[in-house]
Amino acid sequence: MKSAVETLNPTRVRLSIEVPFEELKDSLDAAYKKINQQVTVKGFRKGKIPARVIDQRFGRGAVLEEAVNDALPKFYTEAVNEGELNVLGQPEVDITELKDGELLAFTAEVDVRPEIEIPDYSGIEVTVDALEVTDEEVEKAVEQLRERFASTNPVERAAADGDVVTIDLEAKVDGEILEDGVAAGVSYTIGSGELLDGIDEAVTGLEAGGEATFTSELKGGSAEGKAAEVTVKVTAVAARELPELDDDFAQMASEFDTLEELKADSRKRLETTKQYDQATQAQERVLEELLKLAEVPIPEKLLADEVQTRKHNLEHHQLGQMGLDLEKYLEIQGKTLEEFENETSEQAIKGIKTQFILDELVNKEKLNVNQEELTEHLMRRAASSGMSPDQFAQAVVEGGQVPMLVGEVARGKALAVVVEAAKVVDTNGEVVDLEDDEDETTETAAEATTEDKAADKAEEKNEA
Description:
Blueprint: E1 2-9, E2 12-20, H1 25-38, H2 51-58, H3 60-82, E3 87-99, E4 103-112, E5 125-128, H4 135-148, E6 151-154, E7 164-173, E8 176-189, H5 199-203, E9 211-217, E10 227-241, H6 247-253, H7 259-293, H8 300-321, H9 326-333, H10 337-365, H11 371-385, H12 389-398, H13 402-421, E11 423-426, H14 438-448, H15 453-463
Parallel strand pairs: 5-11
Antiparallel strand pairs: 1-2, 2-4, 3-4, 6-10, 7-8, 7-10, 9-10
Helix pairs in contact: 1-3, 2-3, 4-7, 6-7, 7-13, 7-14, 8-10, 10-13, 11-12, 12-15, 13-14
């Protein structure tokens, strides 16, 4: 076999491949064997039909077609390896010559990873939010905990904001009561915004036994999106009572004996959360600066495939779980289809650039992934997918996605190298030490903008 490589542009090549006919012998034998198992010729046992009879009855062309289809992947792969090409996606193959007994010639156009020169990233400097926890934030955290321990007591008065009402609902569209538009004994907290638009105004001021009618757009059910006339009847009103903020509350809601100890713990938790957020912010901003420094050609077909994958995952996974379609989603987001497609394309370009640059860094720095690192990463990915580690691992292995996970960990380590070389300061001008949070957050930042097919495959497997 002879092959030659022609560079069409920085991200695409054309392979020209010539195969002497004798190198097709194995594929021809396999073609005759396959056809033998599929056809019946009177006078011959199944599988024992001579090649000359197959040629006469079904045509030599059918055999050649089968043999070429079998042989092409092997010769294409040999040419790719011979040319030391890092190909992306499937090739576009064109058979240019096929002479029975003499020669097979074909071309294969395919996207390749561009050659990337890693820029000098030692001068990267980014600014992140300062690590500050205010007294107001601590009070808010304690108040949220207090809300969780609120109790309700029936009252004989008109319902007010924050009260919990028990209600019956009846929805009509065009004067007809909907089959799925009737509900009784629904518990609702006024002001929570968890039910229909307009319900807060309708029930506020009603006592038990009171009734009101309002118009609202239905958010689900058989008449989703339609305007309905909704009748609501209040059957009970209960006031929410919050516990006193004292040492007794601290002992009831936590392992601490005093309210001051509870507040101190809340402050510590907030500091830990902000420290992680600060580290994540630093990784993302360092990555942004790195992307600005590097010139990365983007393969057109790879970009088109990535955009399509992102749109498919949004429509069929994320929006589907929320009961939305793309049109409704865009309406909620206040975006046009053109704006959405432009944003998706920008995100895909960023993801591809990130992967190319970090993969090049992995090779340059000779970074490896050990079993412990892979296991830790798998555990995090399993948690984020809502699957058990065993389920996620099985789905990843069956889907052939282990190399994808290894790549994610390696890219996280590559980004950590860049972050370590960067200068990170907060808004107060203080240098930020990210050493404690670096491993996990750099993996997260790298994952956020690269292809996420491992998780998608695992989730699809779980759903199936």
